[in-house]
Amino acid sequence: MKKFVKPLLAALLVTTTAAATTMAFAQQAPKPEQVIKWRQSVYQVLAWNNGRIKASVDGTYNKDEVIRAANAIAAIANSGLGALYPAGTETGKGWRETTVKPELFTEQAKAGEAAKKFITEANELAKVAATGDAGAVKVAFGKLGQTCKGCHDDFRKKD
User: What is the value of pTM for the model shown?
Assistant: First the structure.
């Protein structure tokens, strides 16, 4: 039995190394069109979750629905969205033409501040949602909405 173990381990090591090397070569930088698609998709998910919260605070309040949506928004906010804005994605088409303004790429300090505000308010909304206080959620949701509006005003072309 030992006679087969060493050759088997050696073959496994060679196969694993070859697979890792192949994967490393396959992991090239994504094309700008793909990054724009990811970016547009992320914002659709954010919009969907915002809609879930809005429906709840404007209608019959559903604590569990609000918690799920607020947690999803906070997770996305903390996921490193800045990586979806690499050079070369200022223009182009993902699912549709990008609506990002060139200023987002040239005014990085201002864009970074907008991102920090969004993260802060998204995290606060998730905390408040966990309490189940519909009035407090409405206030926190409004603050989050202001961060979205501010960023759109500064860095998004009008549709």
Answer: 0.81
